[in-house]
Amino acid sequence: MKTTIALAGNPNAGKTTLFNALTGARQHVGNYPGVTVEKKQGVYQFNGNSVQIVDLPGTYSLSAYSLEEVVARDFLVKECPAVVVNILDASNLERNLYLTMQFMEMGLPVCIALNMMDLAEKRGIEINVSALSKALGTPVIATIARNGAGKKELMQAAIEVANNKTATKPFCISYGEDIDGLLRQMEKQIRQAGFLTDTYDSRWIALKYLESDEQIVSLGQKANAQLSSQLELKTRNLSEHLFKTLETYPEAIIADHRYGYIKSILKQDVIRFRGDQNRLFISDKIDKVLVNRFAGPLIMLAVLLVLYHFTFSYSAIPVAWMEAFFVWIGGLAQTHLADGVLKSLIIAGIIDGVGGVLGFVPLIMFMFLGVALLEDTGYLARVAFMMDRVFRVFGLHGSSVMAYIVSGGIAGGCAVPGVMASRTLKSRKERLATLLTVPFMNCGAKLPVFALLVAAFFSEKKAIMMFVLTLIAWIGALLVAKLLRITVIRGESTPFVMELPPYRCPTFKGLAIHTWERTWQYIKKAGTVILGISILLWSMMTFPGLPESQGRHYDQQRETLKSTFQIDQGIIDQDIKKQLALIDKKEAEAALRHSIAGRLGTALEPVSRLAGFDWRTNISLVGGFAAKEVIVSTLGTAYSLGQTDSEQNIALSKKLAQSPNWSPLTAISAILFIMFYAPCFVSVACICRESGSWKWGAFSIVFNTLLAFFIAGAVYQIGGILGF
Amino acid sequence: MQKILVILIVAAAAWYLASSCYKRVKNAGESGNGCGCSEGCGVCGQCDDDDGPDNRG
């Protein structure tokens, strides 16, 4: 049987980094708490044997307060791993040991990884590893997960603990006279009745009753309602007694005694501080400025502006190369392929469709590099911290900020993990408000659409435009959240506490991996799903084709034109050439209009014109429901099918800029519509699943589309009146 | 001949999309390691491949 080792510890202690170092996986590691919501599994090869490694979500305790804690606790209890490798942040030892105490109280076999020893040393913290091991009675190994130091020793120690077949006795901490006496009574009752003891230790169950643990009390009610009620009554009596005498509750006393016990361990020559213990660490010094109430938000906006400036400035040349490359490929196909539907599919469907999306790869890459830099240094966590103050005003929770950022709050994220990240919210109403508004963020799929329209109509102010669009997305999302919180999902806001991780210098390798992984996903999506959708939409924009009568009508026009001019041995006059091209263009447009997609776009035109969208744009916006990048590929195909051969060899941004149906005002209206309209279908499916009802998924489609159309229509109409 | 080839390409694209859609909707929220799940499906584009990192060992 394969040995299972669970990695557990506080958020941001380095579990995922260690997991990646052990398994060779490339799980996403963020320098902010809460990257892992669910457990992940991998395999580590040890002396020729496979060891199963499970990375549990980061938790501060094992109460059932949040989803992460439930996931971690359930795994430890139900799956019974051979050993729990408890990763401790050596620079925050006291707080991290709180969770260790709980593992030991549960009677779990524990092996400790004292991680981030380098950071602790820099902070002037000296830890006597062997003294700590002796005090806890369990192996303690110093590690630096970032460079893999101590990895082998840790696994060696963990396997030894796992192979030690003697059952680990639950650790007992004294919680003072009041609690200890009652604990003993309750423990006896629980043991005698065999109450949940097949899964949990009897003292631990009693402790959980005293902590009013919802999950255990609910399990107890199902197993033995009478005994459970008796235990609850005892807890209530104790609570009343403690409140009368000490003005406190059992949970607080239990936590105090655990910390007291930890302090007594640390005093046994385990930890020593060099220099002034109260001095400000570098991270704290930086935070004095970066999260300052007044300077912080201004710096945040400046960072955002610099990020966009960096992205657009440095990507401009490679993006132009990519555009030129696809134009060249299109030209080659135009020259060498025989006329017919296959040629049309390759040029209009594939090269102009997918090429339009792939053309933005350099821009996406630079954007991801910038975001990875902010994330790896720990600045994103500061953004979340600062935004918390704002979020509370709009009825959201501090944890919602990370969901927004993951969804593309800075740019380049995805609404699916954003919706998932809302799981960390305990209040259902705050969770609903969050998951319904995260799709408004500028995800990585919207990015090429915005980049295309900005390049076509605001090429001089790309960075400023992107900056403004980010602000609009946040303001829009927060206003909608407020609207939802005062109407359909009314309720109080809950408090939020967030740990700020220390600033870290990102490694080149880390930045390169993060940037490449995200860029590769973009390329892969363009080459698979977007390619498939482009082919399908091309067929919908090509078939059934013009009716024979209309086709004959255009043929007759050509014949008439040719017969009225004298053509000498194949040398066609330039004027006739132009007129013939015009007829070709009219025919292509008529064919496109007559196609399945064209008819749909035309049917929507009377309404969509209010926001400035023509029938071609309508086709792309409908296609965008599949994935937002499809808007670019569909526009590429639609404008390619409706053009003559000579017009095809230019980039899509230039085609849009030259089109009479597009103007800067139309572009702004389209950007706003795309920002706020229905999320892609995967996000909708995720919203349905996470909200537990298909109605919220339907709500997000209908409400978002109506809202988006209202905003786009208002901007277009008012802009028109003002003469833009 | 061209028409047959085009029909085959379109049919293949439709088949791929249908199966991909099914998988994406079925797995949405359940996988994609970047979103914190245990099996990668590529839905959110944050995990490395469709098989998930579990298979990398």
**What oligomerization state is this entry in?**
heterodimer
| Sheet with most strands: strand arrangement of chain A | 2-3-1-4-5-7
Distance between the termini of chain B: 47 Å
What's the number of extended β-strand segments of chain B?
Answer: 0
Radius of gyration of chain A: 31 Å
- Name the overall outline of chain A: elongated
What does this structure look like?
The complex is a heterodimer of chains A (724) and B (57). Chain A has 32 helices and 8 strands. With 724 residues, chain A is mainly alpha-helical. Among the domains of chain A are: 3-163, Rossmann fold (3-Layer(aba) Sandwich); 177-273, Helix Hairpins (Orthogonal Bundle); 527-721, no CATH class. Residues 28-36 of chain A have low confidence and may be disordered. With 57 residues, chain B is an all-alpha fold. Chain B has one domain. Chain B has one helix at residues 2-27. Chain B is rod-shaped and about 40 Å long. The A-B interface holds A 23-28, 35-43, 45, 57, 338, 340-342, 345, 414, 416-417, 419-421, 423, 444, 517-518, 521-522, 524-525, 528-529, 531-533, 535-536, 539, 681-683, 685-686, 689-690 and B 2-3, 5-6, 9-10, 13-14, 16-17, 20-21, 24-25, 28-30, 32-38, 42-48, 53-54, 56-57.
Secondary structure layout:
The complex is a heterodimer of chains A (724) and B (57).
Chain A: E1 3-9, H1 15-23, E2 40-46, E3 49-55, H2 67-78, E4 83-89, H3 93-105, E5 110-115, H4 117-122, E6 125-127, H5 129-136, E7 140-142, H6 151-163, H7 177-193, H8 202-210, H9 214-223, H10 225-246, H11 250-266, E8 271-273, H12 282-290, H13 295-336, H14 341-358, H15 361-377, H16 379-393, H17 398-409, H18 415-421, H19 428-437, H20 446-457, H21 462-486, H22 508-542, H23 548-564, H24 574-594, H25 596-608, H26 615-623, H27 630-641, H28 645-648, H29 652-658, H30 664-676, H31 681-691, H32 694-721
Parallel strand pairs in A: 1-3, 1-4, 4-5, 5-7
Antiparallel strand pairs in A: 2-3, 6-8
Helix pairs in contact in A: 3-11, 7-8, 7-10, 9-10, 13-14, 13-15, 13-21, 14-22, 14-27, 15-22, 16-17, 17-18, 18-31, 19-21, 20-29, 20-30, 22-27, 23-24, 24-25, 25-26, 26-27, 30-32, 31-32
Chain B: H1 2-27
